[in-house]
Amino acid sequence: MAASSSYTIVEYFGGDDGYRCGYCKNEKGNFSHGMWSHAMTVQDYQDLIDRGWRRSGKYVYKPIMNKTCCPQYTIRCHALNFQPSKTHKKVLKKMSKFLSKGEMPTGLCDELLTPLIHSDFEQYIFSFYVLSSPFHPPPPPPLPGVGPDPGRPVCRKAKDLRRERRLQKDQKRQQESGSVPTCNPAATPVPPSQPKALEEFIDESLPGSPLHRLEVRLVPVNDDDPQFAATYEQSAALYACYQMAIHGDAPSECNESEFRRFLCDSPLEAETSPDGPETGYGSFHQQYWLDGHIVAVGVVDILPTCVSSVYLYYHPDFASLSLGSYSALREIAFTRQLQKQSPKLCYYYLGFYIHSCPKMRYKGQYQPCDLLCPETYVFVPIEHCIPSLEQSRYARFNPDPDAGDKKVLKDLGRLLVLYRRAVMPYAAFARKRKGSNDEAEVEQYARLVGQVCAERILLYRA
C-alpha cells in the first residue's frame, strides 16, 4: 500500500468515569478510553482496531477490558475460508422466497411507530418512510375462524419431501434404463462433492425473473459524491424510522444531526493505492435498493487488510427477513471480491464480540473467526477462547504465558505531538513546556496505541 501523505490527528480523553452500559444496563459499569480523531489514515485505523479500538463517528474508543462490566473483544472472520451454516442458508432462502414470490413479512411500522408520533419531525418520518412506502402492506382481512384447516393435508418436513423426490427420480431412471440396482462393496467410492461457495448461495437467493429486484450499491461517505448527496435525505429518514421502531429511540436521539454525527462523519481519509481495491479505502454506505427504494444501509470501512462493519439500519417492515445476517453474508462476499483485487484484504471484522451478553454471541457463528487477546494483541481462534470466557468475563487468550505486546511502548520521547501547528517528538515538546504535568496522561495514551502508532499519529497538545 502506498504511504499516505497525511497525518492522523487525535485528542486523548482518558477513561476514568464509568457510564451506562447498553448491554447489561449497568448505570456506571461501562469503562473505556476515548479520543477524538480530527483525521485518520486507513493504515492507522487498521493498526488501532488490531489493538482493540473502534470508532463511532469520529470518536474512537477502547474498552477497559479488565474493568468494564461487559468486556468487548475484537472479532474477525476469515472471509476466504467462510462457509455458510444451515442458519445462514435459511436466511438466503428466505430472501429468495421474498424476491421471487413476494412473500412479505407482516407490516410492523403502524404498531411500532404510531405511539411515537408527537411532533412534526416524527410525522415527517412516518409519512416519508412508512405511509408512503410501497412495501407497507395493508392490514390483513379479519379471519373467519382460528386454528388449522381440517381440509388441508398434513404439513410435511421439507427434507422428507426432498428425499421422496430423489427416490422417485432414481426409480424412474432405473426403469427407463432397464437396470436393477446392485450392491458392489468393491466399487470405488464416489468422492464427496465440494461444498458450494457463499457466492453461489447468494446468487441462488437472487432469482432470474423475480417479483422484486434487489440491488446493492456502494456509495462513498462524501458530500461531494453525487449519489451520496442525492440519497442523503432518504437514508436519514430510514435511519430515524429504524431507530424509533427497533430501538425505541426518542426523535432527538435519531434526528438528522445525530445521523450525520454517528454514520456519516468519519475521520478516515479516502485513499487509493496501485495494489488496493478499485473502490479505494475509506468509509462507505452499502445501500440495499428494493424496486427503486432504499430499504437497508450497511455502513462499512474498507481498510488495508479488512472490511470493517460499522452499523446496519433497515426498514422495520423487513425485520423478519433477518437483514442483519443477510447483510453480513453480503459483506463477507464483498470482502472476498475485494481480495481478488488486493490480496492482503482478506478479513471481515464484525465489531465486538461480547460473550457475557447472549444476544451478541451470534457473531461467533461466522466461522472460522478469531478473538483479539486483550493483553498481547494477537488473534486466537474463537473455539480456544470460549472455555476461558465461560469461566470469566475477562480473559487472556494467548496460550503462551511469556508472550507480551510486541508493539509495547519503549520510548515515550519519540511519540509525535502537534503543538502550535508544529510537529515534534514528545521529548522536544517537554523541553519547550518545562514543568508540564501531562506526562502520565501521554504515557497512558502511548501504551494504548503502541510504539508504532505513537511514532506516526499526532497527539494534539493545546
Automatic annotation (TrEMBL):
Residue intervals of the N-end rule aminoacyl transferase C-terminal domain: 235-373
Coiled-coil annotated residue ranges, if any: none
Span list, region Disordered: 162-194
Listed EC numbers: 2.3.2.8
Residues annotated as transmembrane: none
Record-level Gene Ontology MF annotations: arginyl-tRNA--protein transferase activity
Catalytic reactions on record: an N-terminal L-alpha-aminoacyl-[protein] + L-arginyl-tRNA(Arg) = an N-terminal L-arginyl-L-aminoacyl-[protein] + tRNA(Arg) + H(+)
Basic and acidic residues composition-biased segments: 162-175
Keyword flag Acyltransferase: yes
Residue ranges annotated for the N-end aminoacyl transferase N-terminal domain, each copy included: 20-90
UniProt keyword annotations, A-Z: Acyltransferase, Transferase, Ubl conjugation pathway
GO cellular component, one term: cytoplasm
PANTHER family: ARGININE-TRNA-PROTEIN TRANSFERASE 1, ARGINYL-TRNA--PROTEIN TRANSFERASE 1
UniProt similarity note: Belongs to the R-transferase family.
Task of the protein: Involved in the post-translational conjugation of arginine to the N-terminal aspartate or glutamate of a protein. This arginylation is required for degradation of the protein via the ubiquitin pathway.
Protein name: Arginyl-tRNA--protein transferase 1
Lineage, top ranks: Eukaryota, Metazoa, Chordata, Craniata, Vertebrata
